[in-house]
Amino acid sequence: MKRRPFLQSTLAASALLLTGLFPYTAQAAETIKVGILHSLSGTMAISETSLKDMALMTIDEINAKGGLLGKKLEPVVVDPASNWPLFAEKSRQLLTQDKVDVVFGCWTSVSRKSVLPVFEELNGLLFYPVQYEGEEMSPNVFYTGAAPNQQAIPAVEYLMSEDGGSAKRFFLLGTDYVYPRTTNKILRAFLHSKGVADKDIEEVYTPFGHSDYQTIVANIKKFSAGGKTAVISTVNGDSNVPFYKELGSQGLEATDIPVVAFSVGEEELRGIDTKPLVGQLAAWNYFQSVENPVNTEFVTKWKAYAKAKNLPNYQTAVTNDPMEATYVGINMWAQAVTKAGTTDVDKVRDALAGQTFAAPSGYTLTMDKTNHHLHKPVMIGEVQDDGQFSIVWQTEGPLRAQPWSPFIPGNDKKPDYAVKSN
Amino acid sequence: MNQPMTITLAQKAGPRLSLAVGGLVLAILLALPLLHLLPADSALHVSAYTLTLVGKILCYAIVALALDLVWGYAGLLSLGHGLFFALGGYAMGMYLMRQSAGDGLPAFMSFLAWNELPWYWYGTSSFLWAMCLVVLVPGLLALVFGYFAFRSRIKGVYFSIITQALTFAGMLLFFRNETGFGGNNGFTNFRTILGFDITAQGTRAVLFLCTVALLTGSLYLGFRLARSKFGRVLTALRDAENRLMFCGYDPRGYKLFIWVLSAVLCGLAGALYVPQVGIINPSEMSPTNSIEAAVWVALGGRGTLIGPLLGAGLVNGMKSWFTVAFPEYWLFALGALFIVVTLYLPKGVIGLLRKEKEQ
Amino acid sequence: MPASLPRILMALALLWPLASQAGDANDFVAANPAKQAKLLESWAAQPDPARQPLLDALQQGRVAADSSKTAFIEEAGNFSAAEGEAEPASPPKKLRLNNRLRGLLQTAQASHQLLASEASVRLAAAQQLQKSAKPAQLELLNARVASEQDAAVRDALALALANLQLVDPDPAVRLQAVRLLGETGEPLARTRLEALLDGDSETDAGVRTAAETSLAQVKRRLLVGELLGQAFSGLSLGSILLLAALGLAITFGLLGVINMAHGEMLMLGAYTTYMVQLGFQRLAPEYLALYPLAALPVAFFVTAAIGMALERTVIRHLYGRPLETLLATWGISLILIQLVRVIFGAQNVEVANPEWLSGGLQVLPNLVLPYSRIIIIGFALFVVALTWLLLNKTRLGLNVRAVTQNRNMAACCGVPTGRVDMLAFGLGSGIAGLGGVALSQIGNVGPDLGQSYIIDSFLVVVLGGVGQLAGSVLAAFGLGIANKLLEPQIGAVLGKILILALIILFIQKRPQGLFALKGRVID
Amino acid sequence: MRAAPIPEALLDPNRDPGGSREAVGLGSSAGKGLDVRHGTILTLEDINVSFDGFKALTNLTLYIGVGELRCIIGPNGAGKTTMMDVITGKTRPTSGSAFFGETLDLTRLSEVEIAQAGIGRKFQKPTVFEALSVFENLELALKTDKSVWASLRARLSGAQKDRIDEVLHTIRLDGSRHRPAGLLSHGQKQFLEIGMLLVQEPQLLLLDEPVAGMTDAETEFTAELFKSLARKHSLMVVEHDMGFVGTIADHVTVLHQGSVLAEGSLEQVQSNERVIEVYLGR
């Protein structure tokens, strides 16, 4: 009786399996395929989903202007589900099965490290939009986020300046993984070079997903009794809320002990009541509150897009640094394709060197001629009660990235141009 | 559930058919790497993507089988098998890192400004020693943990929860840069294995064949165990441990044997997984992964040998397909699948197939 | 440097009365940040009650400037000139202060508030000055100590003064200041006293000895505060673990369902809180502060209803097959997470603490007990008591216990087992929902909220002994305190690993948990 | 409370308890190593067990002779099952001594060691390996090397197969040898469990309510079976069914509130005033 449906479902299941193994390849080449490799589920979805939407918006925008080389761009969205080996698998799929010409994606360093060998093996092209710890320069990756010298070091310089509160002691707080550890290593070397002694630097790490900051905040308080203290936070996304809430409830204000964060932007602040946070700092290369016509247009477009696509909570849609980096990356790639007249990876790579783009940050950003990183301005923003940042300090102009930080021994021998890691 | 019965049943239902299907699958699996060696423009060429994807799923299938040996047969649900898998993978990864580092230190260490290898890295440049570690590390950990757990007669949910705690602790430990395994980035960027380029078609094909061999070997081992008196003691242990003790059997030895065997199989699967996938990092130890492995087994049908393999293939195949076709909805599909299977297919997919055969 | 700066400021201060007439507000608005800082410092040394409205407006961020750098003060959306009569030449833009200015502003405010009529305001001001008084304020403080009537305020002022007197040229003054500092428990006093121990900075041996004595006293008081703080944070962490685990103690402990979707019940409770908050914002903004109270029953019933629906549709088919409930509930949990992600977005949503849950109670100078945490501890105990009463003193509780102990027998006795199962599962889920409300006040509210608590919750229930409410309570507080004792010693990461290892060892020792029922072995 | 009187039979060195001196050498059931010089196979002296303050056994003293068939009766909660738990090592007494033969200290041995030493137990609720066939159940119970390594290489010898067939016949389950044990009726499961005890060849059999749920015919058959087992083996039967007890027992021990209330033949026990008081109420 039940036999037929069962058989059918089994057949259907095996069909699913087969299509999974052998995805249909390529249609005609009327479009240029663009891969988007951001986690839409799992722990990283919180950060990466908006980058996917931003990429789609930018692609729409380019298509609205007639596409590239007379062809439309066709986005191919996949979900690596915050699973690092899946990132490698998906990138291979994008490059060999879907035959995309470029991929925009990844957030965490580990996901980038996971796909890197694939991109190098298949000579693909990846645009990576997030600030990271540096120590990498692959010919197959363009890094549109900040290297440590484009974010962390200027932030600390600001804290040591009179306007930043002339901090003498530094509490380096991070989640225990590679980016915070490396950044703090660089910062410690930098602080040493500025004459800060080891007794005035405290490094504390918490496990992933840590949510109880009572002891740590108490320790910060204790540490701060020894002199003007600043906290440099590389706490990972989700742990920030309990950390800031604890700061607020133990009565630590930014005027006493400023906290500068490298992973807290507008998007993260959407999930936090910012009133107790006013005055806390963040260092980025872009803030939504930057005032210039390019940014005004950028923000307006994004809000309109969010509303049109009915994204969740579109009423409070914001832009942030990695979104801007995604936007800049796609546009630079488009310019390079136009310049090269082809989507061929080697030609586009050559065309990208020295490419410039008037970015929403208000600066004309340049892709470095050799090191695959963007020249970026650095801005320090203070949290306002409306969830935006007011910019209290910024660099004169864009800085060249130093992916091989001079503060890490041995890096002086590293070449200043991209070479395959293999 | 009823393993010995099902075996007899399968025999009755036509060993020829089972053998034919099994042989066909094996033939396809053996053909895949050979087809991969064909030139890329050939119509029959199997892409590296397909090969690594199938290779990955086969590794998962071994894990499922190993888990089924302890869960389906001995009734011990481990929610920490990801740990053994990852440990095997890390042991292999250490060797691969040493290979790509040449005479120097692995990249992540020089980056931490370490000047010499930690003691546990000694000898990892030797493939042989790395292979020993692949077996020894998960095996010894399982032995020590199992010895204490079974001595205290921890079973059921308690056992599941402490295995989960174990793998969670392992994950936190490996997350730390200081532990000396590359922190959350783990190991990537492997170059050569035994001197062969890891991305070469030939190397891929050989690795794939090794995986098929390990899978067939484990399957054969499982089959022999299940048909031996040992297998029947395990079944008895699962259903009525007290009765078995009063028959004069010491359950600890039996549990420990199958538990360690299962951990070692997982370690081996992990060791084959790493060079094919190209990365090993602590998220393999996350409790979620281990729960997922339990789901493969339940989905396929536990207490059978083929069921877990089917389950691993089905879930991972679906995952690969869904995450491309409907990226936002694949969790719904996966979740619904679990519910439907537990509610309507208590014996898993294999139970369903058997029912078909019976009619 | 420390000597020359006051002198310059004094000189400035002498000039000030003249300049002041030109309009503080307009001066401030026209100045660059460095000059603004100087202005604030001088105001702090020379308080003038007439400046109070300006300072208030600055602190509340209501000061704006037009293009001609004329100062305006915003009042309910309208801008009026801060000084004299003027119309804005362009739409005024609000002045943004940076941290440094905000700090100086606080000090200036405190100086001005020393002149306030209420003693409590003066006291708070004096306490603020203990932290931030600048040498330039020495004269002001001296004058205020002399004229202050209220004893408490005078003591506080004396202390603020003592901080400045540590560098007084007169050893006798320094000695007195050192003695005074010895009577406090301020972490800052410790640093200041430590600086005096060194022969280079403090030449007088008598002062040095007194500093040593005072330092010992301060350290003792600080230690007390630290220990109390540790104990409190242990209790607080315990109460959070308890709230997270309590629902599970029912669904898993009593019903035997390995409820992997328990974390999602917490998450749904937290999202319900978010929705209630939104509702209040839209419909009754005047009662917004009460939204957490309103969220409690709502969250309870919402999650209980979802729990009951799940029980009726899925879980009731799985009783007696505990390991299969694990798989089914895991599926449910995946679906719920993704559902929330699709509806509310992957990002965290904002759940703000109302006024009465923000800030903390200053018990000792180095010990603040956050109100939210105090209330959560109380709330956890309240929920435990409620659950205990429900299970032990009501008909429902009796039925639940009967069903969980012997389903068939209970059915024979006329207990409607289906209904009881449903209600019990609903109760467990509802309690998880209550836990979610509490968690939303201290952590983030996002789709993954539940995932971060599920492992801890299971550990608490298992450690306490399945089916033992008291065991869960003890396990939660035990884990919380152990965690907080270990954290300062070996760091949060190793601490967590060690705790997990200890739990594994403990279960070896007592496989049935803390509170296992001993008895005849039932087969 | 005074210790219960020791049966005369056991005190008299000239008498063979149960007439089974020679039973020691009979079959393989008499373990090679077991020292039963004094004719006592089980000695329990002053056993106390308490669970969280509740005293389950109080100064229990009991002796079972070699080849004896002893029935234990007593109201619910008298401590019958707890006593079996103590003998089989499942529960450790708080004080007192328990010896199997003259030398094996049961309080120091694990359950498995006790089972291997030659004490078999049948549970109150029939417990068989439901997923295995009847034959496989017996195969597992069969007296043989039970270590992991042995089980990996185990093959049944002809003699072992014959032994299983023989027992299958005895317990009247020859027809169901390949049926999964889970599909047997309640009574059949009882027999299967008894069969498993038989192939295990213990010297002392502990049987907890063996005829519960059996038809009259089955009960009768069981009584015959037990009587034939006595002498070759020692049996301790816990039973409520007085009729059954009457047909099989030479000696009856009455337990009450964790200690021995009376001991002797069924008639002696039934006429004991204290027993009447306990069973019938004051």
Automatic annotation (TrEMBL), chain A:
Residues 411-422 have a biased composition (Basic and acidic residues). It holds the Pfam family Peripla_BP_5. Residues 1-28 form the signal peptide. Keywords: Signal. The keyword Transmembrane does not apply. Residues 403-422 are annotated as: Disordered. The keyword Signal applies. PANTHER family: ALIPHATIC AMIDASE EXPRESSION-REGULATING PROTEIN, PTHR47628. NCBIfam families: urea_ABC_UrtA. This is Urea transport system substrate-binding protein.
TrEMBL record, chain B:
CDD domains: TM_PBP1_LivM_like. Pfam families: BPD_transp_2 (PF02653). Signal peptide: none annotated. It comes from Pseudomonas fluvialis. The chain crosses the membrane at residues 20-39, 46-67, 73-92, 127-150, 157-175, 205-223, 256-274, 294-317, 329-346. This is Urea transport system permease protein. It is found in: Cell inner membrane. It is a multi-pass membrane protein. The lineage of its organism: Bacteria, Pseudomonadati, Pseudomonadota, Gammaproteobacteria, Pseudomonadales. Keywords: Cell membrane, Membrane, Transmembrane, Transmembrane helix. GO terms for molecular function: branched-chain amino acid transmembrane transporter activity. The keyword Cell membrane applies. The keyword Cell membrane applies. One of its GO terms (cellular component) is plasma membrane. InterPro entries: ABC_transp_permease, ABC_transptr_urea_perm_UrtC, LivM-like. PANTHER family: HIGH-AFFINITY BRANCHED-CHAIN AMINO ACID TRANSPORT SYSTEM PERMEASE, SLR1201 PROTEIN.
UniProtKB/TrEMBL annotation, chain C:
PANTHER family: ABC TRANSPORTER PERMEASE PROTEIN (PTHR11795:SF447), BRANCHED-CHAIN AMINO ACID TRANSPORT SYSTEM PERMEASE PROTEIN LIVH (PTHR11795). GO terms for cellular component: plasma membrane. GO terms for molecular function: transmembrane transporter activity. Belongs to the binding-protein-dependent transport system permease family. LivHM subfamily. It is a multi-pass membrane protein. Residues 1-22 form the signal peptide. One of its GO terms (biological process) is amino acid transport. The chain crosses the membrane at residues 237-258, 265-284, 290-310, 322-344, 371-391, 458-482, 488-507. InterPro entries: ABC_transp_permease (IPR001851), ABC_UrtB_bac (IPR017779), ARM-like (IPR011989), ARM-type_fold (IPR016024), BCAA_transport_permease (IPR052157). Its main location: membrane. It is found in: Cell inner membrane. SUPFAM superfamilies: ARM repeat (SSF48371). This is Urea transport system permease protein. Keywords: Amino-acid transport, Cell membrane, Membrane, Signal, Transmembrane, Transmembrane helix, Transport. Pfam families: BPD_transp_2 (PF02653). NCBIfam families: urea_trans_UrtB.
TrEMBL record, chain D:
One of its GO terms (cellular component) is plasma membrane. It comes from the Bacteria. CDD domains: ABC_Mj1267_LivG_branched. SUPFAM superfamilies: P-loop containing nucleoside triphosphate hydrolases. InterPro entries: ABC_AA/LPS_Transport (IPR051120), ABC_transporter-like_ATP-bd (IPR003439), ABC_transptr_urea_ATP-bd_UrtD (IPR017781), BCA_ABC_TP_C (IPR032823), P-loop_NTPase (IPR027417). Residues 42-282 form the ABC transporter domain. Keywords: ATP-binding, Nucleotide-binding, Transport. Residues 1-27 are annotated as: Disordered. GO terms for molecular function: ATP binding; ATP hydrolysis activity. This is Urea transport system ATP-binding protein.
